[in-house]
Amino acid sequence: QQQVKQSPQSLIVQKGGISIINCAYENTAFDYFPWYQQFPGKGPALLIAIRPDVSEKKEGRFTISFNKSAKQFSLHIMDSQPGDSATYFCAASISTGFQKLVFGTGTRLLVSP
Amino acid sequence: GEEVAQTPKHLVRGEGQKAKLYCAPIKGHSYVFWYQQVLKNEFKFLISFQNENVFDETGMPKERFSAKCLPNSPCSLEIQATKLEDSAVYFCASSQYGGGSDTQYFGPGTRLTVL
Fold first, then answer.
1. Which residue in B101, B105, B110 has the most chain A C-beta atoms within 10 A of its own C-beta, making it the best mutation to test that interface?
2. What pLDDT is recorded for position B68?
3. Which residue in B40, B100, B106 is closest to A95 by CB distance?
4. Among A49, A19, A21, A52, which residue's Cα sits nearest to residue A36?
5. Residue A2: what pLDDT?
6. Which pLDDT score, from 0 to 100, does residue B1 have?
7. Contact flag B41-A41 (C-beta cutoff 8 Å)
8. In the predicted model, what is the mean pLDDT of chain A?
9. Long-range contacts, stretch A2-7, CB < 8 angstroms, 24+ apart
10. ∠ at Cα B9 (B3, B13), nearest 5°?
């Protein structure tokens, strides 16, 4: 119930291409879905987040698509750049109250020049 | 400060020894979370605080792990009698309002190696 499943485990994309990372959750109480970006040796940093009352959120080259009925959400990175090479984690939490983040297992993205 | 600070950066302990990790949340943030990231990148929630009060400790192996957030002091996570499986990176995060949709800001982590 508390799991968030993430795929793929790793991804290689050419510079300028689109990177797509998918996540699925089970707990219908989750209503806040952030994506975190982590570089080697650093802590994760919030990239973009969505609530289930919208189906899509875009910030620059990063877009979250959300499918409430399927309990799935995905991160799209348009015009991927070598500087985007990092590990990406989806997460979920319950917005009411004081709630921990439940993380996916991470996707290691490599953008080749 | 504007960043979550964690010390030390690296910690090496022999099995059975004690380990103590520290976290200074961002100034003005009242909520602190500890997560453990093991080698396969999986994050495991350990414990959360609202100021000095424990809010959720469901992830803590209580027989060996303890944590505190005291006023005017860095928060701490202590592991008594470390085991090999405690080898991981321990992240502290802080948030201002504590709600589930409030951004959690992560520190750089402490890498604990248990030999």
1. B101
2. 96
3. B100
4. A49
5. 67
6. 57
7. no
8. 94
9. A2/A26, A2/A27, A2/A102, A3/A102, A4/A90, A4/A91, A4/A92, A4/A102, A4/A103, A4/A104, A5/A104, A5/A105, A6/A89, A6/A90, A6/A104, A6/A105, A6/A106, A6/A107, A7/A107
10. 145
Residue B35 pLDDT: 97
Q: In this predicted structure, what is the pLDDT of residue A55?
A: 94
Return the amino acid letter for A88. Answer: Y
B104, B105, B111, best to mutate vs chain A, most A CBs in 10 Å: B104
Nearest to B101 among A32, A100, A102 (CB): A32
Q: φ, ψ for residue A101 (rounded to 5)?
A: -90, 140
Within 8 A by CB and 6+ apart from B90, the residues are B6, B21, B34, B35, B36, B37, B46, B77, B109, B110, B112
* Residue A16 identity: G
Q: Do A98 and B55 touch (CB under 8 A)?
A: yes
pLDDT < 50 positions in chain B: none
pLDDT of residue A1: 54
pLDDT digits (tens, 9 = 90+) for A56-95: 999 999 999 999 999 999 999 999 999 999 999 999 998 8
Burial B88-107 (b: 16+ CB within 10 A, else e): bbbbbbbbeebbbbbebbbb
Task: Enumerate chain B positions whose Cβ falls within 8 A of a Cβ in A.
Answer: 4, 31, 33, 35, 40-43, 45, 48, 50, 55-56, 59, 91, 93, 98-101, 103-109
